[in-house]
Amino acid sequence: xxxxxxxxxxxxxxxxxxxxxxxxxxxxxxxxxxxxxxxxxxxxxxxxxxxxxxxxxxxxxxxxxxxxxxxxxxxxxxxxxxxxxxxxxxxxxxxxxxxxxxxxxxxxxxxxxxxxxxxxxxxxxxxxxxxxxxxxxxxxxxxxxxxxxxxxxxxxxxxxxxxxxxxxxxxxxxxxxxxxxxxxxxxxxxxxxxxxxxxxxxxxxxxxxxxxxxxxxxxxxxxxxxxxxxxxxxxxxxxxxxxxx
Length: 245
Description:
single chain; Arc Repressor Mutant, subunit A; 10 helices; globular; WH_DNA-bd_sf; transcription
């Protein structure tokens, strides 16, 4: 696609997400499914759009939380950073996902920072609006609790993987997670890595060199074929079997 066409598409996307469309955007987010038009309209009044360019920071560790965020398009990372400058990616946020709910309820400052991995559109929903909605809608309460429970479950899964699984098992597990459920028994499946290798390595608690070495070893065994950010898996069942070996 040429540059003019890419610019045109980006322009169309920006026009699609003008402030008057916030109600429509909220209605497409799984967390808000089932809310009435009036309820969505109330939330929209306390929701603002944040357009953030690749590499920019949405919030930093220590910033106060005044609500939570929903990613409409793009990609974000939540990460920790040491004084020495080393970084640990905690989570990679994809479109449709919300983040920051737990900190909002705890009324504590952020303990991670959020940075855009690509040009992104984020919705910030105010704490006051969420508290009001929680008082009126028990189904919404359950959805909020379910979302935080899923995040806690993922955290425990991460701790298990870091403590008990080898680097190779973690990488294969990540690749399995990137596949659709319908692809888990397929051959010649091609997937594109959802982020650059450095970000994924940090997410898996690996150095980038170790992550690349594991990909090379799996390639040598004929279990994957690496083509830049694209990975072809000749046989998903064989790769899954290797994870369990």
